[in-house]
């Protein structure tokens, strides 16, 4: 799986919860998925349409009413849903809000090994400096990332490491990025 696809999937807040619920066996109709995710109708609809545009979810032909369609995972969607389930298994219920943020999973996927700010910019060229800085600070406050300063380097530079749930998510995401085509 490509990092740009992970970035695109996580661009909508409820995409990962939709995927992990489909992987967990929640029926592919809107009402059960909406109830399982806890999203508002509007945000849920935007995330669902986003996943359809990415060809991760498709309408199940021949099933459901035209006004209440049933959805299913595509081949790519099965891989993405499996990744979402592994990420969900690594966190507690109160951490779901952090997983719904756009850059959490892409940043953690790049922390299989310690990384510097510049390395993040090279690996995630689409992220702005501000978004990266704010995301790293937020992950630090939740104890998913720790920042150490390499004083041997000139000038000294901060190095980021994944810890606790962040390390578990990092392992799951980097595994999917490195093994799935």
TrEMBL record:
Pfam families to which the protein is assigned, alphabetical: HxlR
Keywords linked to the UniProt accession: DNA-binding, Transcription, Transcription regulation
InterPro entries per the UniProt record, alphabetical: HTH_HxlR, WH-like_DNA-bd_sf, WH_DNA-bd_sf
Superkingdom of this protein's organism: Bacteria
GO molecular function, one term: DNA binding
Every HTH hxlR-type domain range: 100-169
Protein name (Swiss-Prot/TrEMBL): Transcriptional regulator
